[in-house]
């Protein structure tokens, strides 16, 4: 039977133990990550199957709704074996007070839209680092190999801090994509800093005259490294910094068997960057449900 748990009822240690037993487990779903990204999160738990689903919610204008916190790519149902109607059973068990949803489901979930729902596809890219570095580089695109011949011999450093990364990100990546709220940036910095403390995160980058000009943040957990966020100023772009940082990460972990998860993008240029390293694309779903009463429903159509 699926149980609904309010935040105070969630045993965080038990949640993390359940997550570790899930075949589709993801770094994003650890209890400490959820605590930072979505304080007050709630949950659905099935003691028989071992399946779990976080309910990441907030409230606006008197309406409680499910949403996708900044920086968390996927959520949904996680289970030792996600099969049959399990996904729909969990979705049906979400409390009715959450009348509006806009969430991204994990790759293992495959559903069709029901009444008052819209389902759309998003792409992500992953690369299995199961070969030695030279063999992996054979899979790079010609343009990527060409870019790696540019940029000189700038030394890649691993000493960039969470605040330094965030400052660089705010004035580069965030600015290029329309900016991000101060609250989202504070949350991202806390996620990165805590992950570093827990030995789940490493940041690699380039410096010029002591200042970071490019950096990439990798979240490492349970055989998967997530290319979490990156930042690159004009000087970094001139040096093809992100190509060199990513190639360095691939080379350092070549033959390890871990999955490098580029986290994907529907932005064509980002997807080309990812697939240019030999990564393959897969699909995960966005689910929007609108069962708000009129006239609120019409505003969110």
Supply the key terms.
301 residues, alpha+beta, Aminopeptidase, 2 domains, three-stranded antiparallel β-sheet, 12 strands, 27% strand
3D structure, described in words:
It is a single chain. This protein has eleven helices and twelve strands. It has 301 residues and is of the alpha+beta class. The chain folds into two domains: 2-111; 125-282, 3-Layer(aba) Sandwich (Aminopeptidase), CATH 3.40.630.30. The strands form two sheets. A nine-stranded mixed β-sheet has the order 4-5-6-12-7-11-10-9-8, sandwiched between helices. A three-stranded antiparallel β-sheet has the order 1-2-3, with helices on one face. Helix 6 runs antiparallel to helix 7 (182-197). The longest helix is centred in the middle third of the chain and has 16 residues, at 182-197.
Write the layout of secondary structure elements.
Layout: E1 2-5, H1 12-20, H2 31-37, E2 42-46, E3 52-55, E4 57-60, E5 63-66, H3 86-92, E6 98-104, E7 117-128, H4 133-138, H5 142-148, H6 162-176, H7 182-197, E8 201-208, E9 211-221, E10 224-232, H8 234-238, H9 241-253, E11 259-261, H10 268-275, E12 280-290, H11 296-299
Parallel strand pairs: 5-6, 10-11
Antiparallel strand pairs: 1-2, 2-3, 4-5, 6-12, 7-11, 7-12, 8-9, 9-10
Helix pairs in contact: 6-7
């Amino acid at each position: 039977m699926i149980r609904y748990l309010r935040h105070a009822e969630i045993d965080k240690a038990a949640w993390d133990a359940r997550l570790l037993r899930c075949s589709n487990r993801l770094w994003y779903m650890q209890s400490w990550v959820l605590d930072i990204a979505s304080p007050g999160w709630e949950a659905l738990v099935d003691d028989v199957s071992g399946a779990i689903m976080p309910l990441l919610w907030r409230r606006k204008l008197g309406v409680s709704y499910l949403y996708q916190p900044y920086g968390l790519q996927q959520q949904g149902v996680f289970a030792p074996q996600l099969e049959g109607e399990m996904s729909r059973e969990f979705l049906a068990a979400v409390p009715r007070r959450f009348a509006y949803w806009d969430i991204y489901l994990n790759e293992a979930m495959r559903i069709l839209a029901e009444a008052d729902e819209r389902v759309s596809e998003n792409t992500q890219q992953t690369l299995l680092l199961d070969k030695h570095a030279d063999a992996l580089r054979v899979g790079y695109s010609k343009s990527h190999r060409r870019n790696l011949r540019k940029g000189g011999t700038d030394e890649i450093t691993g000493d960039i801090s969470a605040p330094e990364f965030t400052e660089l990100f705010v004035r580069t990546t965030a600015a290029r994509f329309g900016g991000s709220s101060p609250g989202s940036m504070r949350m991202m910095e806390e996620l990165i800093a805590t992950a570093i403390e827990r030995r789940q995160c490493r940041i690699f980058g380039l410096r010029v005259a002591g200042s970071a000009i490019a950096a990439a943040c990798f979240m490492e957990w349970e055989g998967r490294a997530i290319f979490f966020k990156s930042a690159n100023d004009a000087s970094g772009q001139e040096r093809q910094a992100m190509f060199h940082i990513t190639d360095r990460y691939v080379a350092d972990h070549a033959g390890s068997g871990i999955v490098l998860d580029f986290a994907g993008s529907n932005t064509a240029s980002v997807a080309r960057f990812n697939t240019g390293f030999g990564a393959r694309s897969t699909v995960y779903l966005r689910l929007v449900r609108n069962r708000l009463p009129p006239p609120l429903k019409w505003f969110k159509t």
